[in-house]
Design brief:
The protein is α/β, with parallel strands linked by helices. It has 2 domains: 1-129; 131-251, Trna Endonuclease, Chain: A, domain 1. Helix content is 66%, strand content 16%. The protein has 4 helices and 6 strands. It has helices at residues 2-129, 131-148, 192-208, 228-237; strands at residues 154-162, 168-176, 181-187, 217-223, 240-245, 248-251. The chain has a 6-stranded mixed β-sheet with strand order 1-2-3-4-5-6, with helices on both faces. The relative contact order is 0.06.
Length: 262
């Protein structure tokens, strides 16, 4: 009997241990299920967020697709514009080539015209160089006779003298009368500096023409036209001044002006 009771007690203890073990496992399973359900809810929420994000991404991709389509159209238009620009640059290159040819022709023509102008200026310079012979020299005897009451018996044009010391000087014209020597300097345009230079010529005259030391020297300046201030300065130096007038070359000094005898 005792053995039976002991076996029953053991069986009861075993059953209690089993029930306790099953309860622990059930609680663990229950807790695990609750945790799984919580994780499923969290996963469901995350999936909902993901779905929303995917929807937004889809919308953004649609916008991006539209923008890419617009960009593609713009690139097509840009490509067309580049084609037009390329054609325009080709045309510009052709125009520049034509312009270069025209500039070369213009340069050649300018060079030819410059040569012609140089030739013309040379002719004019040569013509001005004969101003003394053509205009002034023929008038000097008349002017001297009218103004100085002297008869000119010797007229020399473009006299060049060389001194023993090597100095060389050229004088435009020299008129000799019984009572004086008249030295002329002719300029196409008479300037004050020319007057000062003529003063130096007057000072050097007797060194180059010692044979006329006994004669007083009169200075005569001549030009095509003379400005008033230049005329006044020439008179101050004591020079007769001639310029083109009614009788080819005429005296421009004041009627009462008396030239200086050097």
């Amino acid at each position: 009997m005792a053995a039976v009771i002991e076996r029953v007690d053991t069986l009861e203890q075993t059953l209690q241990d089993f029930i306790r073990s099953v309860g622990d496992e059930f609680r663990k399973l229950y807790n695990s299920q609750r945790q799984t359900e919580a994780e499923l809810r969290l996963f469901k929420d995350e999936m909902r967020v993901f779905k929303d994000e995917m929807s937004d991404f889809k919308d953004e991709m649609g916008i991006f697709k539209d923008e890419m389509g617009a960009f593609k159209d713009e690139m097509g238009a840009f490509k067309d514009e580049m084609g037009v620009f390329k054609d325009e640059m080709g045309a510009f290159k052709d125009e520049m080539r034509d312009f270069k040819d025209e500039m070369r022709d213009f340069k050649d023509e300018s060079r030819r015209q410059q040569r012609q102008m140089n030739k013309k200026w040379g002719e004019i310079s040569n013509k001005l160089g004969t101003l003394v012979e053509d205009l002034v020299a023929p008038s000097l005897p008349r002017v001297i006779e009218e103004r100085l009451n002297e008869h000119a018996y010797d007229l020399m044009v473009r006299l060049k003298r060389r001194l023993p010391d090597g100095r060389v000087k050229e004088f435009d014209a020299l008129v000799i009368t019984p009572e004086c020597a008249c030295l002329n300097s002719t300029k196409a345009t008479l300037r004050i500096a020319d007057i000062d230079s003529f003063v130096a010529d007057i000072a050097a005259f007797r060194s180059f023409f010692p044979e006329h030391d006994a004669l007083p020297l009169v200075g005569i300046l001549a030009s095509l036209a003379v400005e008033k201030n230049v005329l006044a300065y020439a008179e101050k130096q004591g020079f007769l001044v001639l310029a083109v007038g009614d009788e080819l070359m005429e005296i421009k000094n004041r009627p009462d002006f008396e030239p200086r005898r050097w």
